[in-house]
Predict the 3D structure of the following.
Amino acid sequence: MPGVAIETVEMHTGGEPVRIITSGYPPVNGASILEKRRYAREHLDHLRRMLIFEPRGHKDMYGVIPVEPDDERADLAVLFMHNEGYSTMCGHAVIALSRWAVDSGIVEPAGDPTIVRIQCPCGLVTARVAIDITADGKARTGDVSFESVPAFAHSLDAVLEVPDYGPVTLDIGYGGAFYAILPAVSVGLDVRRSPIRDLVDAGDAVTKAVTRKLPVEHPDDPDLGFVYGTILTDGGEGLSHEEPSANVTIFADAQVDRSPTGSGVTARMALMAARGIITPGQPVYFESVTRAVFVARELARGKLGKRETVSVEVTGRAHYTGTAHFTAEPDDMLAGGFLLR
C-alpha cells in the first residue's frame, strides 16, 4: 500500500457518487473485460477497499476503473466497483463517464449529440452526450442518453418467503444486472415516506432471499448470473412527467443508490414491456430518493437465446464535484480502508 498515489475525478449523477480513476492504478490483466473484472477482484481488491471504504470513501461510495477495451468499437472500457465488489453494469456511472470522456478529450466533440461507446462487463453501451451552448456562447456537455444492452424479464410474479416480511410477490428483471423488483407496500413500506433504514433492511432481506431461492442465469455468460440488488417501487408506472414512478435501489452490501438507477430503470422497462404497459418511444419517468429523475424509452425488441428482449434508452445528467489525489503513508494502520457500518 505505501507508495500508492491515485488521482480521480469526482462526479455525481442524481446524488449518486462516481469516483473515476484517472491515474496511478496498476494495469489490469485479462484478454476480455470479464477476465479483467476477475483479475481486479483477485489481485487488486486492496485498492478497491482503499478508495471505496473510509476514510477516503464510505459504505455508499461508487467508483470506476478505466481499462483497455478488447472491443474495437469501444472508445473506452471500464470496471465498476462498490462496497462489496465489482458490478457488471452501472447506468448512473455511464452517464457521468460519457460526459467526462468528452470533456477530457478521450472522445472529441462531434456535433450534438456526440457519441461515446463504453465497453462494460455486461457488453457495449452506446451513449449520446448533448452539447449545450451557454449564454456566453461556449459549448458545455449536458444530458446523457445511453442505450442499454438487451434487457429482459427473467421472472414475473414469483412468490417468495422473505424472513421477517413473510411471503411476497416480486419480479426479476435484467438491465445489465439482475434485480428483484416489487412495490414497497409489499413489505409494509412507502418509498417516499418510510425511513431509508427501513427500506434498506427490507431490500437487503429480499436480495438475500432471492439469491438463496431463485437462481438466475444469463444466456451469454455465467459471470453475469447473479442478483445485484432489490428495487422497491411506489407501484406506479411513471407514464407522465407529472407523476414519475419513485423507486429506491438497494444493491451490493446494503448500498443505497441515490439516483433512479440506470440499469434498474432498464430492468423495470423490460418488465413493463413484457406486460405490454409501454410502447416504443413512449417516455417513462423514474424518480429517486433525492428526487432526481431519469427518463427512459423503449427503442426496439429482440431476442437473446430464448429470452425476448428490449433495448432501452435512459437519459439523465451528471455533475462534477471535484478532483482528488489519494495516498497512503507507510505507518498508517488504516491505510487499507475500513467500514463502521
Summary: The chain has a mean pLDDT of 95. Helices lie at 33-43, 45-52, 91-103, 196-213, 262-274. Residues 196-213 form the longest helix (18 residues). The first strand starts at residue 5 and ends at 13.
